[in-house]
Amino acid sequence: MDPLHSAEFASDRYFEKLRRLNDSNEIANSPSSGPAAAAVAATATSTVTAPAEPPLLEGPTFTLPLGRQRSHDSDNAPLTLRPSDQKKRSLGHDLTALRTQRRPTFSGSFGSLRSKVTVIHKATPVVQEDVLAEDPTTPHIFALQNLLLALPNELQAQVIAPLPIPTILTLRLVSKSFHTLITLNEASIARYHATNSLPAYALRLYPLPDPTAINLHYLCSIWHRLHVATKLSIMISAQATKEIFLRTTDALRLEFEPQHRRMRQRLVPLIFALFHFFETYRDLHVRHLAAGGTPIHLQPFTLNPLECQVMAMYDDRTLLKVHQVFPLVMSSFSRRLRPPSYAGRVERSFKGYLKDRPAAEVYSTIVSVGGLRQAQRFWETKGYNSRRAAVDIWYGFITRNPVEPPPKSKMSIITHLGRKKPNAAVDATSSETTAGHNSTSCNEWFCVKPACQNSRRRHSTDNLVFHSSLSAGPPMSPLPRDQLRLILPDLQHLSNIWCHTAEALILERKIVERAQDIKRTHQVFLELIRDDGTDGLDDWSPAIPSQTVNTEGQEGMDASGGVSD
Fold first, then answer.
1. Mind giving me the DSSP string for 9-21?
2. Does residue 184 contact residue 465 with C-beta atoms inside 8 Å?
3. Which of 31, 136, 427, 514 is the most core-located residue (most Cβ within 10 A)?
4. Contact at 8 Å (CB) between 330 and 233?
5. Quick check: helix, strand or coil at residue 196?
């Protein structure tokens, strides 16, 4: 007879003993263990010796007694994953098996055996599925560019269109995606600003083209003209405040600020009209000469026919106001190019002002060929010597003549006590290097300097970056050499530009009864600073009532959303 402690593997006695062992373990681990449980255990032990037939197992499977199984209702908290483990599992890599293995040590056979047993019998941690879920409180970070480019094309255009014009032009430089987005939607962007941003007087002088032809070039060209008009109005007002109204201290200028603001705002549309006059006159003049017409200086006329064509575009009020302000603008620009001291030759030698004002043909060339934009560039140049040198360099480049050297001082003995004389000017092409002009750092729109012209690359016509609508260039862009050879010999004297024709047309249209009724310069200044409660905006009311045009503060000055500097 077999002993009681032995049982054949997978026999009925084996399963009976296994069942009893599991029952005893459950009773010992149950919380209600006590005298009653002990009695039950004793009864169960006493029944072991009784020869009873073991019942059959209900299930067809069995488990080896490797240890107590972990119950789901245990009080122990479930294992949690570290953030690094959670990140690895979220990427689809289950590295649990690799983490449980340890490299066996070779310190002894027991160490190697212990490592193997640990690998085999180490329980796999139970990971709950909700641990892998993302935390809803974690903020999601999305790029603004991706959010904008994910919108439909129509919504993208509506988001970009209300932005200021300089912001839209800067946005084209962010990436190729934004450049393509603005280029493909430039018609809708230009129509929005033409309706909501441009002032009425600009639309009267430059009417809206066909809706399909409105693009960024039309919009930026008007903004460019407004920018120049605004800059010149600011500089003319500052000069008049200091030299005409004698507000030389900060306290006096602060007291004069309301009059200064009104003068600055009222000059903007008038200078804008002058920009239109010089631009249109130069275009008509070049086309007339290119078609084989008789030069203007060879025609016997009382009224300049080209000027009459341009002034026919102006209504009576605009023609009168621009005619009254024209001498003021020209005299202010001429004053800017004069030496700042009239004390005499000795004091000029001490201060280094050795050059006199430019000749009259230089002034007429600047305004007739370069336009008001070129006049603004010279005005903004600081220092009289630098300003006169810039004028000489530009005029020498236009006429292809060597720039005249400064006159030699008769007071050569004492000139070393003053400022250093400017070096003798050289040829126009080589003077660019002397002036330190660099084509890589130049930010002028279509600069006329040879270095910038030679550095422009030729690109294919299917390139949207270099062949957009803005590649046509700014208003009054530099003329080619063949057109300069036509127009330079036919330029009028500065005193014959505008004044004679405009005054004759004003009297012919009977805008005023007599020539004495046209206001002179001092009367124009008083009219510009006069406080009539309007700022002069009633004269520039919208011509088309159906259009919504923002003219508050005269666009480009103080209006919100207007054309800024």
1. TTSHHHHHHHHHH
2. no
3. 427
4. no
5. helix
Classified as helix, coil or strand, 41 is helix
Interhelix angle for 12-29 vs 35-46, to 10°?
A: 170
Residue 47 has a pLDDT of 43
pLDDT above 90 (res 66): no
Separation of alpha carbons 315 and 328, rounded Å: 21
Out of 5-14, 33-42, 538-547, pick the least confident: 538-547
CB distance 230 to 268 below 8 Å: yes
Cβ–Cβ < 8 Å for 439, 449? yes
Buried/exposed code over 413-450 (b: 16+ C-beta within 10 A; e: otherwise): eebeebeeebeebbebeebbeeeebeeeeeeeeebebe
What token pair was written down for 198?
């441009």
Helices and strands counted in the chain (H then E): 25, 0
Residue carrying the six token digits 């020869």 = 51
Q: Whose CA is closest to 487, among 498, 479, 496?
A: 479
**Long-range contact pairs involving 317-321 (C-beta distance under 8 Å, separation at least 24):** 317/539, 318/201, 318/273, 319/502, 319/505, 319/506, 319/509, 319/511, 320/506, 320/511, 320/512, 320/518, 321/270, 321/539
The reported pTM is 0.64
Q: Match 């430059």 to its residue by tokens.
A: 206
Nearest residue to 234 (alpha-carbon basis) of 261, 198, 201, 203 = 261
What tens digit of pLDDT does each residue of 392-451 get?
999 998 987 544 554 554 444 444 444 444 444 444 444 444 445 665 666 555 565 666
C-beta neighbour count of 372 within 10 angstroms: 27
- Asked whether 157 and 441 are in contact (CB, 8 A), the reply is no
Cβ partners under 8 Å of residue 289, min gap 6? 295, 486, 487, 490
Closest CA to 355 of 370, 377, 366, 340: 340
Residue 181's Cβ-count burial label (10 Å; 0-12, 13-18, 19+) is buried
Q: 393: which 2 tokens?
A: 């360099």
Distance between CA atoms of 474 and 466, rounded to whole angstroms? 15
Q: What percent of the chain has pLDDT over 90?
A: 36
Tokens read off for 185: 């939607």
Q: Between helices 371-380 and 216-243, what is the axis angle to 10°?
A: 50
Residue type, 201: Y
- Run of H or E residues at 529: helix 521-529
Helix, strand, coil percent values for the chain (each to nearest 5): 55, 0, 45
Place of tokens 């009289």: 384
Which two three-digit tokens encode residue 280? Answer: 């249109």
Query: How many Å apart are CA 562 and CA 191, to the nearest integer?
Result: 15
Between 336 and 465, residue with greater pLDDT = 336
Model confidence band, residue 558 (pLDDT cutoffs 50, 70, 90): very low
Residue 543 — φ and ψ, nearest 5°? -75, -25
Q: Is the dihedral of CA 394, 400, 401, 405 positive or negative?
A: positive
